[in-house]
Amino acid sequence: MVRDLPIETPEIVEVTVAAWGTIEEIYRAQWAPLVRLASVLTTDRARAEDIVHDVFVRFAARPLPQDAPSYLRQMVVNSARDHYRRVKVEHRFLHVVPPSDVIPEVDEIIILVRRLPSRQRQALALRYYADLSVDQIAELLDCPSGTVKSLLHRGIEALRRELAT
Amino acid sequence: MRPSYTEVEGRLARSFDAFVADIPDHPPVAWSTFSAAPARRNHHRQRILGIAASVVLIFLATVSWASPSAGARYHGAVVLRATTPGISRLDQAHLFRNPSPA
Prior knowledge:
The complex is a heterodimer.
Chain A lengths: L9 H33 L2 H16 L7 H26 L13 H9 L2 H11 L5 H8 L3 H20 L1
Helix pairs in contact in A: 1-2, 1-3, 1-5, 2-3, 5-7, 6-7
Chain B lengths: L4 H15 L16 H31 L3 H14 L5 H8 L6
């Protein structure tokens, strides 16, 4: 396998094969949790798969971190945030058709979640899907814990209001 | 009627779980099938070779354009002597950048 790779120096071959073996394992183990997390964060399956793939391409080009799953989760959350920025611009200039892969029985809540501001949506997804603590969410979103509590409270209150109507 | 805070929390968690329930546990293709790193390296090498070849070609084209051939220089010298009476060979050499004028 080492000889098949078109790379000149043996040292580089060893390092690369070792790294690729590890990335292969990480990809196999982390793909599903990350796609699920990205799906919940973006509420768009196709975008979620794109985000996770881009994250892994960037991840493969970097030195392996100590805690790869947490590192990847942070990358996915950051990419989802970039996705919101792009979507905001898209909505400003285009008439975007919402994705059609919403499961009928969860339509109502998911549609209501989509209408929430992006920060509230992210906080709700990380709290009620990923089961993260307020402090962990604060670290991922790079904001104080009080802000996360406020985002969660406002998000749930908005949903309560919408569900009552 | 307005649902309670806990009720909304429960519905939200269930909706998120249901939304991602059909995502398979393993990726549809292995990471090695993308082969991003070797492909990128080969591409990089090809690009460097392409740039080097372009530089050599541009250099050769410039040199051939800037220095006329011996025949052209001789023809030029003959024309110059015919049209410019009294021109010295040194001036011709200077004009044609030729160290040994015909």
